[in-house]
Amino acid sequence: MLPYFLGCPAWNEPAWRGSLYPDGLAGRDFLPAYCRVFNAVEGNTTFYARPAAATLARWAQLMPEGFHFCAKLPRDISHEGDLRDNLAAARDFLDLLAPLGARVTPLWLQLPASFAPPRLAELAAFIDGLPSARSLAVEVRHPAFFARGGEERALNRLLLEHGVERIGLDSRALFSCTERSAAVLHAQSKKPRLPPRPAAFSQAPQVRFIGHPQLEANDPFLAPWLDKVAGWIEEGRTPHVFLHTPDNHLAPELARRFHAQLMARLPGLPALPENTAGEQLGLL
Fold it and tell me: Which of 111, 129, 223, 242 shows the greatest Cβ crowding within 10 Å of its Cβ?
């Protein structure tokens, strides 16, 4: 058992055949293979579409009890209209995810860049309207929340008082890349270019690291996070760390790189299980 949660943006990536997954592995078998190596995943897919009930029932069968699925609230809830008007839809979404039980933690609310400081009261009412036992993490993208002024302090105070985590997104490695490949250009057009904000407002700090396509080029940007995550673990917190690359083809390798370097800072930290790529398909 790891003292923290580590994963990738998703598990359904055919490009991981031959590395994380065995060659020829059917897509329906990706999830159990992923869960043999990683203990968490970002729920990015739920941002774009609500999963069918049958899909959720299957996930509940395949995900280990201690696995964390950080489901992202659908964009019609987070990006359309007043958050307070979308509370009923948020509760319905949580009811839909009920088969996953405690695996859905924390729930993620990714707010658009248009969500500005004057809407903080709206966010507070939304948080208060969710079930009290529901852990929540929020990602903001408006520049004012990164200016180290009163508006950022007001956001941090609101989240801290409610026990809501502030997701720390770090895209510096991605934007340090001068490669002009389609994958890099697409990622740079989609990801925000904002300063990282490490936060620990709850027992489960959240980190999203958007990496460089050359794995070793990420090391200078990972180093501060390694120190931060090691410190959180030593404090008794359970950080969640998710590693991306521009097309995510190397995301599992970057996650392994992070963990290997964290082992050097935390003697006794167990190694990750070996990739499942060498296993016989019949064993899956």
Answer: 242
Distance CA 110, CA 108 (A): 6
Please state, as a whole number, how many other Cβ atoms lie within 10 Å of the Cβ of residue 280.
7
DSSP state of 117: G
HSE-up (13 A, CA, CB side) for residue 35? 18
The helix/strand/coil state of 68 is strand
Locate 77 and state its tokens: 């809830």
Q: Any alpha helices (H) in the chain, and if so which ranges? A: 30-35, 45-48, 53-62, 75-78, 87-96, 120-129, 150-162, 172-175, 182-190, 219-234, 251-265
Report whether the peptide linkage leading into residue 106 is cis, meaning its omega lies within 30 degrees of zero: yes
Half-sphere exposure (CA, 13 Å, Cβ side) for 280?
2
Task: List the structure tokens of 43.
Answer: 């729920």
Q: What is the pLDDT of residue 280?
A: 44
- How many Cβ atoms from other residues are within 10 Å of residue 264's Cβ? 10
Per-residue pLDDT, 91: 97
- Domains present along the chain, CATH in parentheses: 39-166 (3.20.20.410), 168-270 (no CATH)
Please identify which residue in the block is written with the tokens 């959240």.
206
- pTM comes to 0.95
Question: Please, which residues bridge with residue 8 across strands?
Answer: 41
The amino acid at residue 83 is L
The residue to which tokens 């190596």 are assigned: 37
Name residue 264's beta-bridge partners: none
Per-residue model confidence as pLDDT tens digits over 17-50? 999 999 999 999 999 999 999 999 999 999 999 9
Write the burial class of residue 265 (CB in 10 Å: 0-12 exposed, 13-18 middle, 19+ buried). middle
